[in-house]
What does this fold into?
Amino acid sequence: MEFRQLTDRVFYSMFDKAADRPVLGYVNGQKYSLMIDAGNSQKHVELFYEALCREGLKKPGITAVTHWHWDHTFGMNAVEGITISHKKTNAKLAEMAKWEWTDAEMKKRLEAKVEIEFADTSIRTEYPQLSEIRVVTSDLSFVESIEIDMGDVVAELYHVESPHSEDCICILVPQERVIFIGDAVGVDYYNNCCLDKDKLRSLITSMEGFDFDICVMGHAEPMSKQNILNIMHSLMDRQENE
Ligand SMILES: [Zn+2]
It folds into this structure.
């Protein structure tokens, strides 16, 4: 696993396209550390913890997930400490925790369009043994925002309106001038890959309002505030021309 330092207190592991593993973030606080997104499996979490150990960093006391999609949450059962998510994320996780993870049940969910092809394929790549899948809800949940004081550094979690999913949160670390946005800048794979213009506009307004230099995303290289805003504005222009 490729593990990188972004600022004094912020680190992240790179995404991996093979089984759609997203970037995992880490904010190193004196009292506790925060992990951002729980990865797609126990194996993903273990690799992240091994990377932390190699760097001499403590295991996170808190793990926040950016939205409900499997690649960001299926590692939740394997993280240590407390987990936190948006209330809507938790509601979806509670629903998925009841699902059966067998070939037949997964096929049924595909047919019923409850699940999408891309997730189904990636889940099968990550889990040769489907029975190993464990979906759990988070320990804490919130609606608008919550602040986590980790001693010498604070993280601010905000719910944002996003075209990707209705439960997206952003994690701003003001002191480090870094924001984690998960997949917030993206289409809704669960709704015909639709890119809702109003939601995108709302997200642009939120992002413009956050004070940061570097934006960390779920499946891409980190980029500057200007670059991510440019991308969002060009997506907006494309939508308006359709
Ligand atoms: Zn997603």
